[in-house]
Amino acid sequence: MEPNTTERLPFVRVLDNGRRALLEIPSGSAGELASEDALLGLVRERGIAIDATVDAAVRALAARHAARAPGDMSDIEGVISEWTPPVHGEHARIDWNEGFRPPCDAADAADAGDASASTDHYNRVRRVKVAAGDVLGTLVPPGEGSDGRDVCGRSVPANRGRKLALQPDQSVQVEADGSIRALKDGVLSLARLRIAVVDAMEVEGAVDFATGNIDFVGSVKVKDGIRDNFVLKATGDVSIGGLVEAADIVVGGDCSCERGVAARGSGHLLVDGSLESAYLNGVVGRVRGSLAIAREIVGCELLVGGDVDVSRGSIVGGTLVVGGALRAGTIGTDAGAKTVVRIGGMPIELAKAARINELLRELAKRVAPLEERQFEVTSKGGKATAAEKESLTELAFEIAEVRRRLQLLELKRRELLVAAGSARVVKVDVAKAIHAGTVLLVGNREARITSTLKGPLTLGWDENRNLQFRVAGGRVQELRDVASVRELAA
């Protein structure tokens, strides 16, 4: 039976809700129905938008049909048009500047890293420090997107990107161009899209593996203690409610340790302000301001720039350097634990002077090679090359710059030494006793107590800087009467 004529007619199918248009030319289609013009008319009649691409695709199919080999009964078909999908708008986002991207949590950080690499569990929690004026990143608004179209030319609308419900507080500012600028020093905080720079941190528990080491711009309050081997650094004040173990603490302001510090010879304390603590045991550290201890200082190596108050406690073992006055209940022990107390100086200033002296020596080493090179080029006279002659200017400038720095550093060193010499304070008040074996260092004098002195007593020096003491209600006595005093090498 002869096939139905309609089955031999070319036809166009629109598929996938207008995403594709397919032209089919059956093998028995009449030539006049499968010509380029007839096929283009069919496509147009079907509602397909015709452009250069569609036109070329239809003509290519028509050419294939016209070039059929005799007896070829296969149908010819091909896609003649495809939709242009919409480009949806990108969601709003923050493009963080280098160094300010907020850290992911510890679990994500572990997943992102190399599983075979060792993990520093003490530093798993990272905090981003910022300074006032830093541009943290840029708030990129949501994109509008661009509409697409289907094969019939109908618009396919694009979705606009979602807004970012950012909630900056008064510590940051989002400027007209989207820049996010910090308005104060602190640490970046981003919780539930509330962006802020915080300068106060509160740790509900202890500083341990849950918090990691803390390096914070601002003040820190720790409700519990600080565990062994952890580090707490803060530019502001620090308050610690629990026991501080063998940890390292660096404080830019004042520090308070309510339950004390049991460092066991491994912990360090560096405090730029004053320090208050229940007790200190085995601590190595420096306090620029004053030190107030409720109970005792045991086996510590401490340098204190201001006054030290242990009036209700004792100083046992170790070395204590005091820049101001010293008040203590007891110094030393009956058993003769070696206890060294240096007074009558400005230890912070003297330490600065010593560091400057080291720097002076290093800078001085740079001058000699420069001057040797300068002399070498100068001695050549007219035989020196143009490059060598040009280098003389640079050498002269560098030598002058090093000498200028040497002069400024030497001036500063002398100022510190003069200040340390003229502002000496020698005042020691002891409520109960200074035990035999205690060593007092004052300037270049060493006084080793040979007989226990019962308090209350005051130790100081006269106008000739001779060391004296007076027991309450008694007369002033020379310290050499109860101590072995000797001059130390300068």
Structure description:
- The protein is an alpha/beta fold.
- Among the domains are: 73 residues, no CATH class; 94 residues, OB fold (Dihydrolipoamide Acetyltransferase, E2P) (Beta Barrel), CATH 2.40.50; 90 residues, no CATH class; 74 residues.
- The chain contains 5 helices and 33 strands.
- The strands form 5 sheets. It has a 21-stranded mixed sheet that branches. A 4-stranded antiparallel sheet has the order 4-6-10-9, with no helix packed on it. A 3-stranded antiparallel sheet has the order 1-2-3.
- α4 packs antiparallel against α5.
- The longest helix has 37 residues.
- The relative contact order is 0.05.
> What's the total count of β strands?
33
**So how many helices?**
5
Which range does the strand content fall in?
A: 35-45%
Q: Quote the distance from N terminus to C terminus.
A: 128 Å
For the largest beta-sheet, the strand count, sense and barrel status come to: 21 strands, mixed
Instruction: Write down the overall geometry.
Output: elongated
Give the % helix.
10-25%
Helices and strands: which structural class?
Answer: alpha/beta
Architecture of one domain in CATH?
Beta Barrel
Overall average pLDDT: 86
Unreliable spans are 1-6, 105-117
Rounded to an integer in angstroms, the radius of gyration calculated over CA atoms is 42 Å
CATH C-level name of one domain: Mainly Beta
Indicate the CATH topology of one domain.
OB fold (Dihydrolipoamide Acetyltransferase, E2P)
